[in-house]
Amino acid sequence: MIDPVVDLRDVRDGAVFADVRWYLDGRSGRAAFERGHLPGAVFVDLDRWLAAPGSPGEGRHPLPAPEVFAEGMAAAGIGDEDTVIAYDDGGGTIAARLVWLLRATGRDAALLDGGLGAYPGKLESGPVSPAPAVFTPRPWPAERLAALGDLDAAAVVIDARDGARFRGEVEPVDPRPGHIPGARNVPCRENLDESGRFLPVEQLRERFAAAGVTAGGDVVSYCGSGVTACHNLIALEHAGLGLGRLYPGSWSQYSATDRPAATGA
What we know:
This protein is of the alpha/beta class. It has 8 helices and 9 strands. The protein has helices at 29-35, 46-49, 66-75, 96-104, 163-167, 201-210, 229-238, 250-254; strands at residues 5-6, 16-19, 42-43, 84-87, 109-112, 156-159, 184-185, 219-222, 245-246.
């Protein structure tokens, strides 16, 4: 399997570029795609294909049914044997969800380092209608996931949200401010340098080590709704620290329960 982060120069011939732009403020990712995207890229809708409908009991972006995910990939022209290079315009913080879902089910997929901004040429515009492909549903592997009841026993729990949300100073969308008690804050956007590319591997290792992560150790990653948490999981794997587990419900599920919440650093 390819490294989960690739430079544009190292993308294999025949790889499928997947644009996974999505915005918390409600802007349309599809509209952004149609205004300009990498040549030959297809659009993958986060809400429709990479998540099930949200609820207080399951969180804002629960994992989709494998059959729904497979339908979305097939409709985007992504087949069982394709290598997928996903990108967005936020350093891969959204596109990481697609990459994680594909890699967790044994498919070759990676984030494009630098995202949309890494492409030096002229972008294409307009809608794209790819030829449908064959994509076989596979169950989500239990060993790559953590549920609400698993959090207390996890060795290290890391929170990918920015510091202000982690500390409980602001909470724009979820029921309560704060974080899961005992969690360490590893803001996913700080995996990147000023140009939106991943930090060198040694610096990534130092970031995770400061949060108590050891190579091959049990790590559970969460965020607001289980999307940007995937960026930390991709960074962990890229840095050679292991695979980690995703808590899909994340803070949007946890904060809707009566479990205790922590605030501050």
